[in-house]
Design goal:
mainly alpha; two-stranded parallel sheet; binds zinc ion
């Protein structure tokens, strides 16, 4: 008999990391739909579409070249088609460094041959759509930056309060 999936835990850490991402994303542009997706595929010209980092045709995701957490936005010029292996391996690292690095499942570690050509193609893509990544510090004005700092501080305090409550409760009830 096949049972339903065991509920996965939402850890305090995962909750706050989601909140941090939502905060970051709420302070940036999101102008990317099916039409923009089509323009990206046309720019790279592969049919069927392929992962811009390794050439795999198992394109599973749209990846942010500059990660949301590094100030990247969801706009033409910052979104590329990627396979799952590349997207999971890349995380928030700059794409060029990551592609040529030895981190597990990077294009270089997987023996992708034409990395230099691929890097140049991605750079041409950034240029074509005129995307210049600007971090939050450059996009927010002084007052907004102060508000952001205050929110981050409150999040930190809140997180510590939640962790302390959870810890005390688990100690009292021997939940470990
Ligand atoms: Zn890939």
């Amino acid at each position: 008999m096949k049972l339903p999936r065991i509920p996965s835990p939402v850890t305090i850490s995962a909750g706050f990391s989601g909140l941090g991402r939502a905060l970051q994303e709420s302070l940036g542009a999101r102008e990317f739909g099916a039409e923009e997706g089509q323009r990206v595929i046309e720019f790279f010209g592969a049919d069927p579409p392929e992962c811009v980092f390794c050439g795999s045709q198992e394109v599973a995701r749209w990846d942010h070249l500059v990660a949301i957490m590094s100030g990247g936005e969801t706009v033409l010029g910052n979104i590329v088609p990627a396979c799952q292996a590349c997207d999971d391996s890349k995380r928030a690292e700059p794409f060029e460094e990551w592609m040529l690095s030895d981190v597990p499942r990077s294009p270089k570690s997987r023996g992708v041959k034409d990395i230099d050509r691929r890097v140049k193609r991605i750079e041409a893509y950034l240029q074509h759509f005129g995307y210049t990544p600007r971090c939050l510090e450059e996009r927010l004005d002084k007052r907004e930056l102060e508000r952001l700092a205050a929110i981050r501080w409150r999040l930190q305090v809140l997180r510590e309060d939640i962790e302390a409550l959870s810890c005390d409760y688990r100690a009292r009830t021997s939940l470990g």
